[in-house]
Specification:
It is a single chain. With 68 residues, the chain is mostly helical. 79% of the residues lie in helices and 0% in strands. Helix 1 runs antiparallel to helix 2. The protein has a domain of 37 residues.
Length: 68
């Protein structure tokens, strides 16, 4: 749940889970469509979600894992 008690790290972790869920959705959609153009579109969208995950992970690494 998003409210004022949510920390920035928790928000990023929540965003990561949503990006992973979206990627899973697009991967499954690509596997289940017959039309090639639709499959390509879903594969592209899955790739975009992977890029978002990398961006979020980079932020987590940069801002919250400095000590490691």
């Amino acid at each position: 749940m998003i409210d004022k008690t949510l920390t920035p790290l928790e928000a990023l972790q929540m965003a990561m889970q949503r990006e992973k869920g979206a990627e899973d959705f697009y991967v499954k959609a690509a596997q289940n469509v017959q039309e090639e153009s639709a499959r390509q579109m879903f594969e592209f969208l899955a790739g975009e979600e992977r890029k978002h995950q990398k961006m979020i992970q980079d932020e987590i690494d940069k801002n919250f894992l400095k000590e490691m």
